[in-house]
Design goal:
mainly beta
């Protein structure tokens, strides 16, 4: 019964004040503004991506570059793609020659390395290491020195557990080994039939197998270990057999009785024998429509779109008015995991925003559209009636578009 009208989610985050800078459009091009609506970067790009570690991808004429939060263009749009989180001032850039590691502070390649296969960045945080494939052989590229380590393996990949981030699993022919990411030194020579992560409780170990009956165990520092009983996953990752979540069993249902009479019922439909848990009869409404039911919401567990005397508002299942009957229409919207929800209000061809958590009006119907949600900026991407696009603070309703007066 519960319908999720959701916005795409960029990244989950907690509620807090919106964080700039904020992209905005002018004549179809994107620029940057700050919370004071000062122009940081004049609109000139086709797109501006989410900032990561102080940098954001920009696109112009299908070429990609990078800017920082001050609006400075660090890498002119000249690549077909740029990937990575930029936390160490390096990024993977793609052009007609292939992939290369670049220093984003000066837009220069590091080490002159080009590869046909997308490199993978090591998750080891102390340095800038990449697993790269060069001429059919793999090694570890140190972006700080510009040098390749190894360069002889069939495959190089990181371990899953963070305790093993300093190491990489390698294959040479049909055998497995382990190398130190920072030096390329072989920790376990590639002479094992298989190497995998195993757990004793929540502690990770490495099991290196030879043949059918020889298994050698090592701790996270690759010292010999005897962990005892081991399993593929840590104990905490295995749910109890009795842990069952059935979120659809209990929900709100609305029945039209005729002559303006309605019945709202909370039902448990876990079995074919529906069980009514609570019920209210409501009168005098032209239409009632399900918006949402959150049993854990102590303030507003039920929300119903109601039409009365040609106007639309929101009530709960007892008939209490949560949103006055002044709108032409309302719609409930939430992200795909139900973390942030609001009610979109309609007046003519304009839309407003009411926060579902407290039913307070964030913005009167003055918007052309609500396009997306940006959890990094704690803001909604909106479009104004004049066609300009930009961001609106999810807590205050402030619009960050230069020239827009509220």
């Amino acid at each position: 019964m519960k319908t999720a009208y959701f916005l795409p989610v960029l990244l989950l985050s907690i509620w807090c004040k919106a964080q700039g800078p904020y992209p905005y459009t002018e004549k179809g091009k994107w620029g940057l503004t700050d919370k004071n609506k000062s122009v940081l970067l004049k609109p000139q790009f086709d797109t501006i991506d989410v900032f990561r570690n102080g940098f954001a991808r920009v696109e112009s004429n299908k070429r990609v570059g990078l800017i920082n939060t001050s609006g400075a263009v660090l890498v002119n749009p000249s690549y077909t793609n740029i990937t990575n989180a930029f936390q160490d001032f390096t990024a993977i850039a793609r052009n007609i020659k292939g992939y290369q590691i670049i220093d984003i502070r000066n837009d220069k390649p590091i080490g002159g390395l080009f590869t046909d296969i997308l490199p993978e960045r090591s998750s080891y945080p102390k340095g800038s290491y990449y697993f790269v494939n060069k001429d059919g052989k793999m090694g570890i590229f140190d972006a700080q020195t510009g040098k390749m380590q190894g360069g002889k393996f069939n495959q190089v990949t990181g371990f899953n557990d963070a305790a093993l981030d300093q190491y990489a699993l390698v294959t040479l022919g049909d055998t497995y080994g382990v190398v130190d990411v920072t030096s390329g030194r072989e920790i376990l020579k590639p002479e094992y039939d298989d190497i995998e992560e195993v757990y004793s409780g929540n502690t990770v170990y490495v099991a290196a197998k030879k043949g059918d009956d020889k298994v050698f165990y090592y701790d996270a520092g690759f010292h010999n270990a005897s962990p005892g009983n081991v399993q593929d996953k840590p104990t905490s990752a295995i749910p109890a057999e009795s842990e069952v979540l059935n979120k659809r069993a209990k929900d709100m249902y609305i029945y039209k009785l005729g002559s303006g009479k309605w019945r709202v019922v909370l039902e448990n439909r876990e079995t074919n024998n529906y069980k009514g848990l609570d019920s209210t009869d409501l009168n005098g409404y032209t239409d009632l429509e399900y918006l949402s039911y959150y049993p854990n919401d102590n303030r507003f567990p039920t929300k119903i779109k109601a039409v009365k005397d040609g106007k639309t508002g929101v009530i709960d299942m007892r008939g209490k008015v949560l949103l006055p009957f002044v709108f032409e229409d309302v719609h409930f919207r939430e992200d795909m995991v139900g973390r942030y929800a609001f009610i979109e209000t309609y007046m003519g061809d304009k839309k407003g925003v009411v926060v579902a958590a407290d039913m307070k009006e964030l913005k009167k119907p003055v918007l052309k559209a609500i396009l997306d949600e940006d959890r990094d900026r704690n803001a909604l991407l909106i479009e104004m009636p004049n066609g300009q696009k930009g961001y609106m603070d999810k807590n205050t309703g402030e619009i960050f578009i230069p020239g827009i007066k509220e």
